[in-house]
Predict the 3D structure of the following.
Amino acid sequence: MSAVGRPALPSNARTLVQLFTARVADTPQAEAYRQFDSATGAWIGTTWAQAAERVASWSGALCDLGLPRGARIAILLPNGLDAVCIDLAALTLALVPVPMHALDNPQSIAYILGDSDASLLVAASDTQWRAIAAVGAAWPALRQVVVMRQEVVGSPASGAVPVVGLTQWLSLRQPAPLAGIGAPEPPSETDLAALVYTSGTMGKPKGVMLTHGNVMSNVAAALARVAPLQGDIFLSFLPLSHTFERTAGYYLPIAAGACVAYSRSVAQLGEDLRSVRPTVLVSVPRIYERVYATLQETLAGSATKQRLFGWAEAVGWRRFCRRQGLAVEGTTSPALDALAWPLLDLLVGRRMRASFGGRLRIAVSGGAALALPIARCFLGLGLPVLQGYGMTETSPVVAVNAPDDNDPTTVGRALAGVEVRIAENRELVVRGPNVMRGYWKRDDDTARAFVDGWLRTGDQAAIEGGRIRILGRLKEIIVTSTGEKIAPADLELAITADPLFEQAYVFGDNRPFIACMVVLARASWVRLASDLGLDPLAPASLEARAARAAVLEKIASLAREFPYYARPRAVSITLEPWTIENGLMTPTLKLKRNNLAARYASEIDALYQR
């Protein structure tokens, strides 16, 4: 690896295992990972050499199970060193990690365990495993469950699958050799590096098959485009079950020789940003939205502060556009902006950047669209936000802006080696070494995902001057500002299965969570209102807190089989049906979503403001 300047992949690193091995050899005593120790109240660092020792210990325990090459290892852990160790240990033995969201519901986890034919599950606690086992699914391939914490006093969870604590599991084994005599045959570029389940656009989650070659090509291209450096500090908070975090927040730092600090939680992210003071942040739009909203709340009470902030943003934005060669608004001279900026930066810019720790060189935003007013605010005030685009099926990055080539109205240019073009109906299609092998055990879905060898993204786009501009989605799919994808029709169908609901409209595109509007059956509403002590004939009763809470509780019960992020967290109630006549239904009785969004725009905004 390059010791100075831009980092580069070792010429002989074709797999993620070779990448990690090269990193350990190159900078063994540099800090690799950092975690908060609640017992001491301090951040504890781990060097690359120490990380390699832990990976070897995990590899030994895995090797002792005698699993065949390519066996799936299900990982249900929060972000941290343990999640990294089991992932790298599995890869070392040519096994296939199956990362799962630590907060997902037991039904979804049970389905993935069965569909992937996982041989081993590593979970956070036996309490978590008991909830999964209670689903009652059959997992004939599952040979053992390892839990990080044993919280239940007495016998382990019932069932045929043996459960063991991590400490005991590791203590009974010897570290496996990573190379040389007795070492297992290492993985090749064509071996699977992960089976990542994505909800996609409809139906059950699909397992996306990503090879070492897929991920390594993406890491190499991202390394050249974004250019993280040795000595950078990443702050990781996106779940490692997402390919975005796996590639950009886990494997990319290995390639660069950067340190990854693991945030304690999203709730403590602000505090962690200020204490860790990262230089690189890989995020989804929701985090920038939260900071932006806080800024607006701070300014709301003072007209003077609002004017000063607006002036600083406008001057900073013009300076940014000039540096990037973008069109500049207004006629203010560069000299005047240069003269005003030092004071404005002192009073406004530095204070805003301090909320992110004050040292960010790179702030990547992906997973969903970042609103231009938010991008303009942060870029104008000196936060180097780089918007990108990708999908799980492309390992995941297709395109991203660069620090010196950044147009926030686009998602940047395609990475080196990635080909893009506009196909029928303005759909963006992709081809390159980063494109998945296919969907696990789903040949028909795999065939439908491609056209003439090009992967269909389902997004409409335009390519202008080499930059990609996303225009919208071909299918009715919601992408929240946290990057989660939800098929609204499936959820709406589940809700209207209950007689309380005549119709349901689910939304949340580029919003922080899913919400819905429902049309209640009048007779059912009368009964519910009476039970709640409300007047069913009074329009105000539909806005009553008790009514909303009762309806939302019913919806939560109906949506219990859906992933946690797909369950509505807010609801608006009406008794007026949506019909062909009022323009809210098609002749085939499908929802006219754009019309509904326009008709209820104020109600929808009010839901998210509450």
Summary: The longest helix spans residues 303-324. The chain has a mean pLDDT of 90.
